[in-house]
Design brief:
The chain is an alpha/beta fold. It is about 45% helix and about 15% strand. It has one domain: NAD(P)-binding Rossmann-like Domain (Rossmann fold), CATH 3.40.50.
Length: about 260
């Protein structure tokens, strides 16, 4: 029986690229997406062997939905060797606007709570087995807050800290928790940006480096690494200098309209 990878947000972008990379590395796939038919059409279009993949419909923002998808995977395909909590959303918010408060809640529910709920069904059986990899997709945007990105930055900062905590909790049981922080990834969202995006990567390039880092036993990795250097330098800047550096930066699109997008995957 081959290795099994459970991947959320698999219908587009990074998730889709990770799914394809894992498949060609020998993993069978448990693919989670809200649009199950589109996901299945993609898998068939890629020529993936029917016996090596299944699609589970779920909304990671709904705890019961994503937990049920995990339980269905356990029942139908068995316990994964690799779980990648990739699903996430990025929306600009303005805290001064009452209508944006539920948007903040939705971003946190999807990007942070949804990640924990993705891992939940697999932790106890992985502990019993004594092995398994849980991978959380963070972001360089979680390393320092960016104007107009409050919800997204907060959610990804939480992902980074959550995975670090979980890594300490599960290490003695033989489980590995991996935090991956992408920089700018070439997606339809980022193509709307009106400014330079340093070290822009294709989803396929990110997926190749990500799987290499996972299988090498990394616990934390910024991809590409030069973006990690930039992020660390920004973290070290005194607040007055950091604030001046970002003054006038275009804000991210709010839901339904607003300023220019500044999407970090």
């Amino acid at each position: 029986m081959g290795r099994l990878a459970f991947i959320t947000g698999a219908s587009s972008g990074i998730g889709q690229a990770l799914a394809l990379r894992c498949y060609h590395a020998g993993y069978d796939l448990a693919l989670v997406a809200r649009r199950t038919e589109a996901m299945a059409d993609w898998a068939r279009g890629q020529g993936l062997q029917a016996a090596r993949w299944r699609v589970y419909g779920a909304d990671v923002a709904q705890v019961d939905s994503i937990v049920a998808a995990g339980q269905a995977c356990l029942a139908e395909q068995g316990l994964p060797d690799l779980v990648i909590a990739n699903a996430g959303i990025s929306v600009g918010v303005d805290t001064a606007l009452r209508e944006d408060l539920p948007v903040i809640a939705e971003v946190l529910a999807t990007n942070t709570l949804g990640l924990a709920a993705t891992f939940h069904p697999f932790i106890a059986p992985m502990v019993a087995r004594g092995s398994g990899r849980l991978v959380g997709i963070g972001s360089v945007a979680g390393i320092r807050g960016l104007p107009g990105h409050a919800a997204y930055c907060a959610s990804k900062a939480a992902v980074i800290s959550y995975c670090e905590s979980l890594r300490g909790e599960l290490r003695a049981a033989g489980l590995r928790v991996v935090t991956l922080c992408p920089g700018y990834i070439d997606t339809p969202l980022t193509r709307q940006n009106r400014y330079r995006m340093p070290f822009l990567m294709t989803p396929a390039d990110f997926a190749a480096r990500a799987l290499k880092a996972i299988e090498a036993g990394a616990s934390y990795r910024v991809i590409p690494w030069p973006m990690g250097v930039v992020a660390k330098l920004l973290r070290l800047l005194p607040n007055p200098l950091f604030d001046r550096l970002l003054a006038g930066r275009p804000r991210k699109h709010r839901q339904g309209g607003g300023a220019a997008s500044a999407d970090l995957s």
